[in-house]
Amino acid sequence: MKAPRVTLDQWRTLQAVVDHGGFAQAAEALHRSQSSVSYTVARMQDQLGVPLLRIDGRKAVLTEAGGVLLRRSRQLVKQASQLEDLAHHMEQGWEAEVRLVVDAAYPSARLVRALTAFMPQSRGCRVRLREEVLSGVEEVLLEGVADLAITGLSIPGYLGAELCDVEFVAVAHPEHSLHRLNRDLSFQDLENQMQVVIRDSGRQQPRDVGWLGAEQRWTVGSLATAATFVSNGLGFAWLPRHMIERELKEGSLKLLPLDQGRSRNSNFYLYSNKEKPLGPATQILIELLRAFDTLPLDAPFAAPEQA
């Protein structure tokens, strides 16, 4: 890669000439001599081979090419400044990245709100978000690949901060044969039907949570795929209510009238990597995740006061 011929200082000098209305004013703002500012801009034009300014009376005016390059240079200088700020924050212990793994059943609306509130406080810290299913979340945390984890499973040896409950409901298409029985359903009724099960993304000890042991089952890789299958009449499933509210309202899915177990709640928890000290950015994100977890999913967006 060819090294740039023009330095950031030269771009800043050109910006100062334009922003302050001339070479003398730029020199005063930059605490430099006018001859130094003039030489810097002239040198830039020679290096680039493009005229950046023209003199109109006593005022320096941007050429068309100069206007284009100046606009691009502002973003360049801003990014360089942000990079320097990030290096300073990292020196003070501020993380460059927080790795968050979340069970796919956790309401994404809560994540979006927390991450949106985190952005203006992040000081350049990135969030690497990863979705897993069931024991996949635990494995990622135990392998040290995540700093924070949100899961509905209890992780041995870890203390988790309690989050919201997620309600799973048994559903099928309104025209499914189970609904045609027109009565309360037992588990025996379900055992002979096709069940859609979400694959556990864990590799070491995957779990068949919610599977009834029926021989007929579809195993899919995501909750969204399961909802699509069931809403098209391919079996029944337990799905998070918050993910299928629209399908329930539109009538493509209907709650199964089970005599027991028609819904179940899963408690979700927020865990942190106990092998790694929590940095300031991680602690801010934890507080935001917990704060937004308490708000209703349909509440208007606003950063909670405690965050």
TrEMBL record:
PANTHER family: HTH-TYPE TRANSCRIPTIONAL REGULATOR, TRANSCRIPTIONAL REGULATOR-RELATED. It comes from the Bacteria. GO terms for molecular function: DNA-binding transcription factor activity; transcription cis-regulatory region binding. SUPFAM superfamilies: Periplasmic binding protein-like II, Winged helix' DNA-binding domain. It comes from Pseudomonas khorasanensis. InterPro entries: LysR_HTH_N, LysR_subst-bd, WH-like_DNA-bd_sf, WH_DNA-bd_sf. Residues 6-63 form the HTH lysR-type domain. Belongs to the LysR transcriptional regulatory family. Pfam families: HTH_1 (PF00126), LysR_substrate (PF03466). This is LysR family transcriptional regulator. Gene3D superfamilies: 3.40.190.290, Winged helix-like DNA-binding domain superfamily/Winged helix DNA-binding domain (1.10.10.10). Keywords: DNA-binding, Transcription, Transcription regulation.
